[in-house]
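quick q for whoever's on today - can somebody do inverse folding on this one?? i tried earlier but teh output was garbage lol. tokens:
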């Protein structure tokens, strides 16, 4: 046996404590992004609230397991459903939560990134002095075009599932049963987005002097 070669058997000439660089398109630590688009109220309120709406989603991705191409996403999604300019029948839905995502390369700089998560949801009808809270889930399918630190995304499918309301944040004259929120409901959304990726860790940026 040649002396000094035992430490290089697993990694060749590369020291064991040196991580291999991540491939292009996956070489980042965390990111900030936003998505805007349309939303459809599939069954929240079961016909009491408008069907058409808007979606704005803000998220932060943390690439926690690059070798497995898995990360954690913290998100806040804002949906508003109203009938034209009529506000007296509108519904605001705010989701705050997190989930796991996966990056799968399709070709070149194009990636498929599904995400599944759970959140607290806050439902506020504009025509009632009430605000309700419940628990929900979100599942998304997103295509991402990576251009260095910049990412253009298309989310053709974003589903939200909402459990029957768990309680009231602001109590008014209406009950969850009056507003048909005592039953589970769902929404659908689609949109386009932009994300900026950071190659330094979140902790390094916070402590940067």
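ok took a stab at it. sequence:
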């Amino acid at each position: 046996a040649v002396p000094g070669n035992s430490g290089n058997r697993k990694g060749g000439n590369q020291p064991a404590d040196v991580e291999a660089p991540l491939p292009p398109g996956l070489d980042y630590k965390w990111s900030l992004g936003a998505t805007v688009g349309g939303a459809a109220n599939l069954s929240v309120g079961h016909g009491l609230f408008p069907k058409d709406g808007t979606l704005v989603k803000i998220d932060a991705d943390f690439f926690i397991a690059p070798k497995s191409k898995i990360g954690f996403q913290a998100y806040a999604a804002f949906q508003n459903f109203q009938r034209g300019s009529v506000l007296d029948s509108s519904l605001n839905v705010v989701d705050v939560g997190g989930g796991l995502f996966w990056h799968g390369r399709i070709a070149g700089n194009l990636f498929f990134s599904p995400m599944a998560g759970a959140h607290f949801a806050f439902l506020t009808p504009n025509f009632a002095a009430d605000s309700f809270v419940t628990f929900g889930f979100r599942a998304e399918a997103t295509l991402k075009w990576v251009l260095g630190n910049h990412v253009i995304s298309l989310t053709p499918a974003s589903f939200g599932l909402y459990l029957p309301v768990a309680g009231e944040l602001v109590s008014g004259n209406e009950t969850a049963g009056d507003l048909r929120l005592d039953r589970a409901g769902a929404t659908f959304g689609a949109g386009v987005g932009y994300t900026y990726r950071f190659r330094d860790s979140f902790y390094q940026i916070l402590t940067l002097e």
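fwiw The two ends are 50 Å apart (CA to CA). also The longest strand covers residues 86-102. so keep that in mind when u check it
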